[in-house]
């Protein structure tokens, strides 16, 4: 019987961040996961491998673009096995790194599946077939999420992929249908389109990335219509059938849709990627033997300290609610551990950044304009188009946009939105500014390096005062 102060179930970016901090704080810690090393969906089959492939896609796109700058690399030859090898190497590098960190910190890592016995005990079915009993003072459930695939989109054929199988890059299909114009659909759709597939994206709502501000999405959508074969909005897939020549897909226009967007009634695709969202992985064996409660959508219910209804059990990450993002899970994990260690803290971020790693990248943090409108909240929007950025011009990418969402009274920064190459890196400054309660004046007075895209944040603040150096837009009234 192993006895620890903290056991963490699930070693994704939430779980391993929690376990590592617990060990750093001197608590005896165990971490349980079916994989050989910590990493979870993010590292093994999510964020990390997809970004390795998106890096290659970006390079391919830039070499094509380079023709316009007088440099012709010719047609790229893609060695799919080697590309897969690169992606696998990136994953291995990360997971062997987390494996090392487990050893350095003396975290007891159990490769296997946990079954809860009661509020202080669990059994681990180890990967080698043995069983281990474990006793804990506190447990943190960090079991993540799984792809949600509705019955109509469930086809038992390897040509119908989810994000995991799509990341395996089985081939470069001539035609690929991506069901869902969200994070995964657009990121992996970008990879396949750049590698040479004719990609069709079908999205049931009136726009890509529902929830994100439309002016940002418009910039991405414009480019997506150039790189992908077609984007069908307001359209739903009602049926999919595997045939020898491909997957026959039946489309239906959403009745409320203004533009049924010329969707064909049916079409046959070589492959289909289904990316219509994820569901919490809260079906943890034995959970019913505790007081932990699960809501109607399957999320484990927690308070702001990430405590469940069972005082010894905490839960964090995708399994407790949206946004289902790795960095939110890591932060929650650290909060839960600090609470266990007796600190008076809570999960109360002012801003959780979201990044879609498409080309261009789209990123936002804090209050969005859409949310403000929804809440009837008065805000001032200050926008700086990248057409006025010297740095964007040097990259030949003036299609971006930076916007600030500000409180008109206090001039405080409430939200930041960005679209353009590198937006995912730039949003970090926005998050810090929101967390530090920065005002438009703070951003305006902060000297940003020239020539960089980061200047667009400073100049957006100058736009707020009607005094942007590179934009002539005097303040009205
Ligand atoms: P998503 O919620 O981002 O997008 C799903 C999309 O599918 C939505 O636009 C939805 O309207 C649409 N849809 C739903 N049912 C449909 C149907 N029957 N036909 C057509 N469209 C339909 O979900 P996802 O792309 O599967 O990603 C899941 C989650 O994983 C994301 O919400 C995100 O939290 C996480 N993720 C994050 C990143 C990142 O941070 N860069 C990348 C990938 C995934």
* Tally of helical segments: 13
Arithmetic mean of pLDDT = 96
Q: Strand pairing plus helix content: what structural class? A: alpha/beta
The largest pleated sheet is described as:
5 strands, mixed, barrel
Classify the beta-strand content into a percent band: 15-25%
Instruction: State the share of residues found in helices, binned by percent.
Output: 25-40%
Could you characterize the architecture of this molecule?
By secondary structure, the protein is of the alpha/beta class. 31% of the residues lie in helices and 25% in strands. The protein has a 5-stranded mixed barrel. It has a 5-stranded parallel beta sheet with strand order 7-14-8-9-10. A 5-stranded antiparallel beta sheet has the order 17-18-21-20-19, with helices on both faces. A hairpin with a 2-residue loop joins strand 3 and strand 4 (121-126). Helix 1 (13-24) runs parallel beside helix 4 (80-105) and helix 1 packs parallel to helix 8 (326-340). The N and C termini lie far apart (73 Å). The mean pLDDT is 96. Nicotinamide-adenine-dinucleotide binds at residues 179-185, 187, 202-205, 210, 236-237, 275-278, 323-325, 355-357.
